[in-house]
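Q: How do we represent a protein-ligand complex in a form that can be generated token by token?
A: Start from the inputs.
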Amino acid sequence: MSKDSRRFRQPIVVVLGHVDHGKTTLLDKIRGTAIVKKEPGEMTQEVGASFVPSSVIEKLSEPLKNIIPVKLEIPGLLFIDTPGHELFSNLRRRGGSVADIAILVVDIMEGFQKQTNESIEILKEKKVPFLVAANKIDRIPGWKPYDNEPFLVSFSKQSKAVQQRLENAIYNLVLQLAQLNFNAERFDRVKDFTQYIAIVPVSGKTGEGVPELLALLAGLTQRFMRTRIGFVEGPAKGVVLEVKEDQGYGYTIDTIIYDGILKRNDTIVLGGVNDVIVTKVRNLLLPAPLQDMRISKTDYRSVDEVYAASGVKIMATGLDEAVAGSPLYAVDNESRLDEYKKIIKEEISKIRFQKNIT
Ligand code: GDP
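Then emit the structure tokens for the protein with guanosine-5'-diphosphate bound:
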């Protein structure tokens, strides 16, 4: 996509939910789908995140166009690779989260559990909207799987008894959400997405329902978050996901850039263990192409610049003291350096405070 046609950045998506409810499996399925369906040359791997291009979402949602009309203006969706609470707490941004939207994964047979409720609390506190993925529909007794089909297509081919079992399980989730003061409904019955939480039945194992899940994430962020995801051509804003010592690269930081453009040689400021770190970007690294599976995300190619939203590894001096969860700003005007340092100091003290009380 050319620089000028970039009206929106990729919405950033996180996956939360109770242990063993299928977060990792669902993310792997989404990632795998993107790799198989992408156009030749399109990159899907980033550092700490995976990109699902709009071309993939449009292809998948083709059979759904009468129900979910999606004409995508966003370039795609950026999924944070590590699911669960832990990394989510490193995605902080002033007054909220770097995540634009979340998928709350719930095992449809088990319903809400302790960490499902905890996830909802965190999402409420950070004001992140979410969809519920009612996962493992293939485990409903009698379910006949139709791999990678939209849920609505597969559902229409199930027996009446199986359909009823699924409806009962969804109704249970609706009740559990009602107890937490949320209105919720199966996605295809939701009339007003600002008032109701959409429940999307899926299987991370068979891929059923993944087309609807992606179409809804893309459609809803594009429709209701236009200002938030509007692309700004300014200096980069980001967050430090992880600090790592990489063989051959020394200390590097894995970051999510959620706003603007980051270039090689940019001056960046971020939080350090003892003081604010001011340094220059020496190299920007993305996973090398052809290494499409997650396990081999160890070879990198360097790039001159990255656009929000993206997951990128930054090489620079002085990063051994960097703090995960710290904000990161590119500074294009040295006179504003003190202003940025002050913001970083404030944010870092909040991270320390939170770590002390948990
Ligand atoms: P996480 O702890 O939430 O990341 O859960 P995992 O993705 O590790 O899944 C936990 C277990 O549930 C694993 O044994 C998965 O194979 C299984 N699982 C996950 N999703 C599905 C699904 O959609 N259907 C079935 N039948 N099993 C699933």
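The mean pLDDT is 92. The chain is about 30% helix and 25% strand.
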